Amino acid sequence: MTTPQSERFFELWVFLSTSPLLWLTVTIGAFLTAQRIAALAGGHPIVNPVLLSIIAIVVVLKLTGTDYRSYFEGAQFVHFALGPATVALGVSLFRNRALVRHDVLPIAAALLVGAPVACLSVVLLARAFGLGPDITLALAPKSVTVSIALGIANEIHADPGLTAVFAIATGITGAVIVTPLMNALGIRDYAARGFAAGLASHGIGTARAFQVDDAAGAFAGLAMALNAVLTALLAPVVLALLMP
Amino acid sequence: MLQGLFVLLLFQLLGETVARGLGLPVPGPVIGVVLLVAALAIRARWRRGEAAKGGPLPVETAADGLLRHLGLLFVPAGVGVAQSYHALGGQLLAVGAALVGSTAITLVVTVAVFRLVSRGVERSAGR
């Protein structure tokens, strides 16, 4: 039996859940709350705002029985900003140009070693753990930012869904472990820390680097862009050598 | 803010146009970054005569606004990802181990190479 009151509520829900407004607002609200929580935790790396927001939104979608497609109707406006945000890295790069020019040799060396290590190490570990060729292929471009990883997946005939999953998971992993790992190694050079974070864990690692230090963010963004280009050239070669 | 956002979009558009037009394997936004850095460098050279007066450029304000919340932009894709982990079935643990292991190895190797070369450069410059 339905009362007019609950009927009206139902109509309201139908309107809200099909309009992009609701999920756009929820996405931004979840992230702002997660950032507040991260700040309260003193920027502790485990309290990663990206991870917290994703968990919160997944729970809300499950509780309300909303499918991803309706969610993305609203969230796509946030997703779209990834393009301009990539271009925005140019501003931070230009601002830190003196630092980048000073470190041009370490940057080149770390890129030329780091990019193949990112790709090779995951393929070799996946084989050691007995994972099948489908999953291994999709793991190969894991350190590259999602949109470009998908382009690489297309080239090496990897499953695009799995590739996106692994790239995002790698980004979050890197963002969470980079600070404790670098502290344990006693690395205080923020250029080096940022570069490693961006190379190993692309945009989410870069977001973490910007959370810590502007110069670290600039180096992370640079590493992300350089690694994306190099891995796109490298991945087909590595896989042709390693995969039967 | 609007002017800065326009500049970012314009350079993304230019980057996409160049990348697609020339059939480059590099993604459009990355070309956009290169073009934006070049434009900022040319502008700085031009304006060298006038002392660096005034506040930040509109494009700087817009870029800082976006980069301060860079993490937010990965949330929509991340939510999609979190819903598809069950596609991995019983291999979740092995995949997780390979992923975390490789990410840690990549971080350590990259930072080590960076520091080694950087120390080498400093030493040869000091001599």
Could you walk me through the main structural features you see in this protein, from its secondary elements to its overall organization?
The complex is a heterodimer of chains A (244) and B (127). Chain A is mainly alpha-helical. Chain A has 2 domains: 1-82, no CATH class; 89-244, no CATH class. Chain A has 12 helices and no strands. In chain A, helix 2 (20-40) packs across helix 3 (49-64), helix 7 packs across helix 11 (190-212) and helix 9 runs parallel beside helix 12. Chain A is globular. With 127 residues, chain B is mostly helical. Chain B has 2 domains: 1-72, no CATH class; 83-127. In chain B, helix 1 packs across helix 2 and helix 1 crosses helix 3 (58-68). The model of chain B has no long low-confidence stretch (mean pLDDT 88). At the A-B interface, helix 2, helix 3, helix 4, helix 5 and helix 7 of A face helix 1, helix 2, helix 3, helix 4 and helix 5 of B. Chain B: The chain crosses the membrane at residues 29-46, 66-86, 92-117. Chain B: It is found in: Cell membrane. Chain B: It is a multi-pass membrane protein.
Write the topology of this structure.
The complex is a heterodimer of chains A (about 240) and B (about 130).
Chain A: H1 4-18, H2 20-40, H3 49-64, H4 68-80, H5 82-95, H6 97-102, H7 104-128, H8 133-139, H9 146-156, H10 160-185, H11 190-212, H12 214-242
Chain B: H1 2-21, H2 28-46, H3 58-68, H4 75-82, H5 92-126
Helix pairs in contact in B: 1-2, 1-3
